[in-house]
Design brief:
heterodimer; A: alpha+beta; eleven-stranded antiparallel sheet; about 65% helix; B: alpha+beta; PH-domain like; 2 domains; seven-stranded antiparallel sheet; three-stranded mixed sheet; 10 strands; rod-shaped
Chain lengths: ~400, ~350
């Protein structure tokens, strides 16, 4: 025993014990309940998803616990409505005034809403953290949401002129800000990876990702201006199309590398997270999402096509005059299949972009020097769900 | 196997403990020399909280809120389940009643739909009555820039044409008596249409002038648009649609495609309203024409001609407008023969029709 104790940095395992079937059942049931509750069930579904994922994520054998409640999200949403209602009204009036002076002059207002969205995202993160408990001590967060929002905005302004090149440094700066203000009990967090390191991991993907568009565009332009489409242009367009198929692979690799970079940068006191996520570990996840989504779309198209065929046949028989006179059962069938499409896609997105990714990231991580968190005093107050509500109301910006 | 692990909720210290089931649940550290309990919890204060699948994790309402006892040993779990009467009682995670959420949501949904269906038109009517007419002006001016940009910014302004248009509009205004004299603009477009914005600006698209055969036909369409201005339909539509989409958005945060289906429903909803608006504007047009001593039936024939010629591009004047054959017949039956003088003479009419020629 004493021999193992002297090894200073034996990594503690991080494990995910959730079963795929349990999660699938949870989200399918939740999506159906969302449907019958006009979407109001989303507060409880979100809460249940977090409870599921947290309680099945173990650090050194002790599972996280999510103590948030759906009711808190509902109240946060209602208060957010009271805040956002007047803001949207003022926004509308200012926009009107701006349009009077100059057509489309109200566009800068979108920046304000985006900044507000970033503020809300920061506050929502604070809510989630204060509901995250490990070994009887909660995480919490300081820092101002506005301070985060203007950082995010300024960095965001660099994204467009640099065609995305600024992305790694922006992400690193924002993660540093978030983790600098994050604490576990009285143990302060920090983020120790840099934008340069992220860039080193993903620059070639960024370049390859641009290539199909450049090739395609180049081919198109060459086709337009040459009297006989030159062979080179056709080759370029074909190559562009081929690379388009490669995009999901590239995206999966990029996400995996970015997750590994992010998780590996997390520190709390002397506790260090490492993540040896393999670059190909998300490829299957994304292709499964694409495959099942395509299947769902085909099914929807088959139903819609079938309905249309029945309709056309009916027209020949009874001479229906126009589209305006669709029988009510056809409208209902379209509405039902459309809703089913939405539910199915929502379920797939939650399974593949949330649970499967979580599972793979968590399993690839381990914690070095977890003894640094062996006796951390509890600290931090709970915050309300208003941030989540605002983020819900402004979710176009997130 | 560790029988139980205890966290006191004050620090993250992980303590392996054994349990002693006295008159209270006593939690004793296995390393404690004197056997003094770390905590002692009343059985009826113990609550179940979220934990991993293979463990029972409990808290206690009389202990610090984050104090946790975690049991992986099946027999210890069975003991707790047997001894604690209120594991799912108040103060714990509890069980969320799906039925309650469903019923409450249904009630909220019905209330919101009722608000959108009945409340919003009422509210829009009331607000539109209360708002001074001058408030509509900025609303119209705000949209004006966009409308002109959409139509390529070509306003038709041949001076004799403008004179004729002003004469025609002046005569209509003489009877209609709108609070702000309307300000018509002719825009170059291949779509036969005319529309009014809040604040009284009326747009006539040049194709409508080409399709119109007599001044009475055009005057009828203009009088129809006067009706929308007089009834402040534009303002009411803005309030109504804005309010309705806000209410619908309130209901659906981010879920599924249900929002889109409801949006389609909303369009039907507003079409339903504006059909009533169109009826009133139509009645207004008929009354204005009759007071000028001119027939209203030419309006009907113009609309009929436009629909016949461009079925795919039904202009908004008619869009929600139920111009059925029997309505047209009724219009003709109720109509009066012309008693007043012609609104424009032949040369004025020709200048107006060629207002876009430079």
């Amino acid at each position: 025993m004493s021999a193992t104790n002297t090894v200073p940095a034996a990594p503690a395992p991080v494990s995910f014990t959730g079963r795929n079937g349990d999660f699938r059942h949870l989200v399918v049931r939740g999506a159906l309940l969302e449907l019958v509750t006009f979407g109001f069930y989303r507060f409880w579904l979100t809460t249940d998803i977090r409870r599921h994922l947290w309680s099945r994520t173990e650090f050194a054998g002790d599972a996280l616990e999510y103590t948030g409640r759906g009711r808190e999200l509902l109240f946060g949403f209602l208060i957010a409505l009271a805040v956002l209602g007047p803001i949207f009204l003022v926004y509308f009036l200012i926009g009107l005034e701006a349009e009077r002076i100059e057509a489309f002059a109200s566009l800068p207002l979108y920046f304000f809403l985006y900044a507000f969205g970033q503020f809300a995202a920061y506050r929502a993160r604070r809510y989630r953290l204060t509901r995250t408990v490990w070994r009887g001590v909660r995480f919490w967060m300081t820092g101002s949401g506005w301070s985060y929002a203007w950082r995010s905005m300024l960095w965001g302004l660099l994204l467009v002129p640099s065609i995305g090149l600024a992305y790694p440094w922006r992400t690193a700066a924002l993660e540093r800000f978030k983790l600098r203000h994050t604490l576990y009990g009285n143990l302060p967090g920090r983020f120790e990876e840099t934008g340069g390191q992220l860039f080193g991991r993903i620059w070639w993907i960024w370049l390859l990702g641009l290539l199909p568009f450049l090739l395609f565009l180049g081919g198109l332009v060459a086709n337009l201006f040459a009297s006989h489409p030159p062979v080179a242009a056709i080759v370029a367009m074909l190559l562009g199309a081929a690379l388009l198929i490669a995009l999901p692979f590239l995206h999966a690799i990029r996400r995996a590398r970015e997750w590994a970079w992010w998780a590996g940068g997390i520190r709390f006191g002397s506790v260090t997270v490492t993540c040896d996520m393999r670059s190909d570990s998300l490829i299957g996840v994304y292709w499964a999402l694409i495959g099942f989504s395509a299947l769902v779309f085909f099914a929807f198209a088959a139903v819609a096509g079938g309905l249309a065929a029945v309709l056309v046949a009916g027209m020949h028989v009874r001479g229906l005059a126009s589209f305006g006179q669709l029988p009510i059962w056809v409208m209902a069938a379209y509405a039902v299949s459309y809703l089913a499409l939405g539910v199915a896609l929502g379920v797939l997105a939650r399974i593949y972009t949330l649970q499967r990714v979580w599972q793979r990231v968590v399993r690839a991580c381990s914690v070095i020097n977890i003894e640094g968190a062996a006796d951390v005093a509890a600290a931090g107050e709970l915050v309300s769900g208003l941030g989540e509500g605002l983020a819900d109301g402004l979710d176009f910006g997130l | 196997m560790e029988a139980a692990v205890f966290f006191d909720g004050l620090s993250s210290r992980r303590r392996v403990v054994r349990l002693s089931f006295a008159d209270r649940l006593e939690i004793v550290g296995v390393e404690a020399p004197d056997g003094a309990p770390l905590a002692s919890w009343p059985y009826d204060a113990v609550r179940r909280v979220d934990g991993p699948a293979n463990a029972l994790r409990v808290s206690c309402t009389t202990a610090p809120p984050l104090a946790r006892l975690e049991l992986r040993d099946p027999s210890a779990r069975a003991d707790i389940l047997r001894l604690c009467p209120a594991l799912d009682g108040p103060g714990g995670v509890g069980r969320v009643s799906v039925w309650r959420i469903a019923v409450a949501s249904l009630a909220a949904g019905v209330a919101i739909i009722a608000m959108a269906w009945f409340g919003m038109p009422l509210l829009a009517n009331q607000l539109a009555e209360m708002m001074p007419y001058s408030w509509e002006k900025p609303l119209g001016e705000a949209v004006d820039g966009q409308v002109r940009t959409l139509f390529g910014g070509h306003a038709c302004e041949s001076p004799p044409g403008i004179t004729a248009l002003k004469k025609l509009v002046g005569q209509l205004q003489g009877v209609a008596d709108l609070p702000i004299a309307p300000d018509p603009v002719v825009l170059q477009s291949g779509v036969p249409n005319a529309f009014a914005l809040p604040g009284g600006r009326i747009y006539v698209l040049s194709k409508l002038l080409i399709v119109s055969q007599t001044p009475d036909e055009l005057a009828g369409v203009l009088a129809h648009e006067f009706g929308h201005v007089a009834h402040r339909d534009g303002l009411r539509r803005v309030i109504r649609d804005g309010g309705t989409s806000f209410l619908i958005g309130l209901m659906f945060g981010d879920v599924t495609g249900a929002g889109a289906v409801l949006m389609a429903g909303r369009t039907v909803l507003s079409a339903e309203y504006s059909r009533a608006d169109e009826e009133r504007a139509h009645a207004f047009a008929v009354s204005v024409m009759h007071r000028l001593g001119r027939p209203a039936a030419p309006l009907g024939s113009l609309l009929h001609r436009i629909i016949g010629s461009a079925e795919d591009m039904v202009p908004s004047v008619l869009h929600d407008h139920p111009l059925t054959a029997d309505r047209k017949a009724r219009l003709e039956a109720e109509d009066i023969p012309p008693t007043g003088p012609a609104l424009l003479d032949a040369s004025e009419w020709q200048s107006l029709k060629h207002i876009c020629n430079r």
